[in-house]
Amino acid sequence: MDYSSLLQHVAKHIQLEKSESDYFLSLLSVKEVRRKEVLLQEGQHCTIINYVQQGALRAYYRDKEGNQNIIMFALSDWWVTDMYSFTSGKPSMLTVDALEDSVILQLQKVDLEKLYQQVPKFERFFRIIMQNAYVREQLRIIENLSKPAEERYKSFLVKYPLVVQHVPLKQIASYLGITPEFLSVIRKKSK
To answer: Which residue pairs, CB below 8 angstroms and at least 24 apart, start in 19-25?
Structure first.
């Protein structure tokens, strides 16, 4: 397994000695998942954080009508979990599944705690990752409250150009909080 992309990702935020990176990598488990395979089901307890080495995942919740409401996508070099369940120990509100065949690196919560003890720099790394995720979600909420759907779609294309290559338009519509039919109208007007 080639861990170079993960180590480059980590190196954007912290510098590791070889022994530290070796220890970190020793805590990870590699998992190959097939398209549509569920990694976490709503209601389960989430004890794993996933790094997407290759492929695409999504996290969503189902509303009372059974509709999937996509919370996030995770492509190569992204992390995904149900952070609420992961940190609180309560049942998951989200389902995480694969949009395409993927390779992920998984880190158990107990191993993350060991990592913090053995290599305290990782507290900084994961703090930065979580801060960035929080900022993204805050901006997304503000956009959803203040911008029309067409502007949200254009903004999505600028921020996440690779997502469009991996994700069906129906799911992008769900992420944007609009119907697939309305997204189709927006796309036709944009051409």
So the answer is: 20/118, 20/119, 20/121, 23/115, 23/118, 23/119, 24/115, 24/119, 24/122
**Spatial CB neighbours of 110, under 8 Å, sequence gap ≥ 6:** 47
Strands 79-80 and 48-54, by their bridges, are antiparallel
Q: Is residue 163 part of a domain?
A: no
Domain membership of residue 28 (yes or no) is: yes
Q: What is the mean pLDDT of residues 115-128?
A: 98
pTM to 2 decimal places: 0.90
Q: How confident is the model at residue 189 (pLDDT cuts 50, 70, 90)?
A: confident
144-150-151-156 Cα dihedral, nearest 10 degrees: 80
User: Would you say residue 87 lies in a domain?
Assistant: yes
Minimum mean pLDDT range among 80-94, 99-113, 143-157: 143-157
Range of the domain at 47: 4-118
Number of domains in the chain: 1
The sheet carrying 95-98 orders its strands as 38-40, 95-98, 56-62, 68-75
CATH label of the domain that carries residue 75: 2.60.120.10
| Residue 100 forms part of a structural domain | yes
